[in-house]
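Fill in residues.
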């Protein structure tokens, strides 16, 4: 299995993986909207035997430091719990680090993301329409969020779905 950047001919397979992983096609449509808006800054696929089996997105965010939003993340339901999600998340975080991003925010399962260093406590001082126990942050630059507060805003696509 390889993790690589999306190519134009992956677009419909990405939609299908996102739609299959979530209850509705909302996340799949979000990915298309972000792409159309030029906000799908990082879009990685997990490819296995020529098939797209997972996908992850990173989009720009406005915040107190150089920030990106991670997600949606999707793995084909029959291939979940085999480490594909972890590989996608770690690859996306490596790219964000190389882009000199200081912090990454996401909205996700409170039991899953702490293993990657995400914490709801780090995100709590920041206001967002998505604030709550599932809103988490991870510092790529140590202490960059310390004593900071204010608004963090996802790319406009998140308000269009
Ligand atoms: C969440 C998701 C991306 C993880 O991908 P994956 O390839 O299954 O994950 P990995 O194999 O790397 O990790 C498996 C671990 O994730 C945990 N996990 C998976 N889904 C979870 C969930 N909804 N809540 C809590 N933990 C979850 C598994 O229990 C497993 O835990 P363990 O290692 O302690 O046994 C995938 O399950 C998925 O596509 N889910 C549906 C869509 C979704 O909810 N996306 C994330 C929302 S931002």
């Amino acid at each position: 299995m390889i993790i690589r950047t999306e190519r134009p001919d992956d677009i419909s397979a990405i939609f299908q993986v996102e739609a299959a992983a979530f209850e509705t096609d909302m996340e799949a449509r979000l990915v298309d909207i972000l792409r159309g808006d030029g906000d799908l800054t990082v879009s990685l696929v997990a490819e296995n035997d020529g098939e797209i089996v997972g996908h992850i997105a990173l989009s720009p965010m406005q915040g107190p430091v150089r920030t990106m939003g991670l997600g949606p993340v999707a793995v084909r339901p029959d291939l979940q719990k085999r480490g594909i999600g972890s590989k996608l998340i770690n690859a996306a975080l490596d790219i964000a680090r190389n882009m000199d991003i200081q912090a990454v925010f996401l909205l996700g399962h409170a039991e899953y993301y702490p293993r990657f260093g995400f914490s709801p406590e780090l995100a709590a001082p920041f206001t967002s329409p998505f604030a709550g126990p599932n809103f988490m942050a991870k510092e790529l630059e140590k202490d960059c969020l310390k004593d900071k507060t204010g608004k963090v805003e996802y790319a406009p696509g998140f308000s269009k779905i």
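The mean pLDDT is 97.
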